């Protein structure tokens, strides 16, 4: 199989996973598509000097590393990119009918990360333990070593702050 055919096969096999991963890293579908296209351009250039690059066990990890590096480079240049996951969280085959669900899950994850990242440590920790982790107020009190009244108060103010931040994120979208 000539290299162009092999690259086409690699594109068909891995592009949707790479785009999903790039969206998870940067939070923007169009940037993700550009990043994945750029990774395949680099694959075409590099496979000329390294013929082993197109082997199944080599090409997929190489492409994911290139995508990650491209997103990091964009972030360093000042583009607004939010890291939201790892390869294991987002690399799943995507059917066309699942694209919208996947996009919604990624956007929800990005929104959650923005909100949690904007909260104080105490408020973020309370939400992680109670809302995300599902602990009861009493369990959270015991786990965090805080009086029950403090847990209730922090939860109240954390939810109030999160709602306010959610409204701001919704306006920005």
Considering the chains and any ligands shown, give keywords for the structure.
mainly alpha; Arc Repressor Mutant, subunit A; 78% helix; 173 residues
Low-confidence stretches: 80-98
Our measurement of the CA-to-CA distance between the termini, rounded to an integer number of angstroms, reads: 45 Å
Q: Which structural class matches the secondary elements?
A: mainly alpha
Approximately what portion of the residues adopt beta-strand conformation? under 5%
Coarse shape: elongated
In short:
The chain contains 8 helices and no strands. It has 173 residues and is mainly α.
Question: Please, could you describe this protein's structure?
Answer:
There is one protein chain. With 173 residues, this protein is mainly α. The protein has helices spanning 3-26, 29-49, 56-76, 87-90, 99-118, 121-132, 137-144, 148-172. 21% of the residues are buried. Mean pLDDT is 76; it is low at 80-98.
